[in-house]
Amino acid sequence: MISIKSAREIEIMRKSCELAANTLAYIEPFVKPGVSTEELNTLCHEYITKNGAYPSPLNYHGFPKSICTSINEVICHGIPSKKDIVRDGDILNIDVTTYLNKFHGDTNRTFFVGQVSDEIKKLVTVTHECMMKGIEQVRPGALLGDVGEEIETHAHAHGYSVVHEYCGHGIGREFHEEPQVLHYGRKGTGLKLKEGMVFTIEPMINAGKRYCKVLKDEWTVVTRDKKVSAQFEHTILVTKSGYEILTLPTLNS
After folding, report:
1. How many C-beta atoms lie closer than 10 Å to residue 196's C-beta?
2. pTM score
3. Domains of the chain, start order
4. What's the CA gap between 221 and 77, in Å, rounded?
5. Beta carbons of 246 and 17 less than 8 angstroms apart
6. Shortest CA distance to 128 belongs to which of 164, 148, 105, 154?
7. Mind giving me the DSSP string for the chain?
8. 252: pLDDT strictly greater than 80
9. Nearest Cα to Cα of residue 112 among 120, 102, 103
10. Are 73 and 226 in contact (CB under 8 A)?
11. Other CB atoms within 10 A of residue 251 CB
12. How far is CA 215 from the centre of its chain?
């Protein structure tokens, strides 16, 4: 069942989404060569809890940490660790979800670590463009296939691929709700969007082929060809005339 949020629920969600976005802005200065993903996890956990919220990933289906940290060829769900030290030239995706006043807010961003090659910068730039092009399709009466095709078309135009196995999702009182939001598809197909729906758009774009595998920890997803992957995510509200991005920071990064 797809939840249509009331005006009151949307106002509450804005606070949780704002906190998630502010967490990414807060952590940015700490993302530099030599830091461990465990250190970044601790900082985010402390920031979230000091602001009266709970980090949604922690203990979610057994996930052991408060954020996801995905380096280079890791597509998503990387587990923070003292052993994972980010190095100059890496890219690092940090995925933050906060649970505040019984509602979740979900966002992620791919950061440059030190001096990153132009080739990888292009992938990250195009990935962000893919997300925004998908978001720009959102309005009442649009179909989810419109979102997916726009993302996939832009990625393919630059020689990149789109991960199929993981997708965006409805969000609200539950971390993951209906609908599933695919980042590929055909215009004119899929669920019709209605005012009051809230969901994430979070394309995972690979420099190589789209295929992935899950590591032995049963969480970390990597590209099969070991090529780099990037991702961005926002939580989106369908408004009366279009969309609103709920996960915009008010904290200067």
Report:
1. 18
2. 0.97
3. 7-245 (3.90.230.10)
4. 6
5. yes
6. 154
7. -BPPPPHHHHHHHHHHHHHHHHHHHHHGGG-STT-BHHHHHHHHHHHHHHTT-EETTTTGGG--SSSEEEETTEEE-PPP-TT-B--TT-EEEEEEEEEETTEEEEEEEEEE-SS--HHHHHHHHHHHHHHHHHHTT-STT-BHHHHHHHHHHHHHHTT-EE-SS--EEE-SSSSSEEEEE-SS--TT-SPBP-TT-EEEE--EEESS-S-EEE-TTSS-EEETT---EEE-BEEEEE-SSSEEE----SS--
8. no
9. 120
10. yes
11. 14
12. 20
| Residue given tokens 């899950």 in the structure block | 214
CA distance 3 to 173: 9
Question: What does the pLDDT look like over 190-219, one tens digit per residue?
Answer: 999 999 999 999 999 999 999 999 999 999
pLDDT value, residue 165: 98
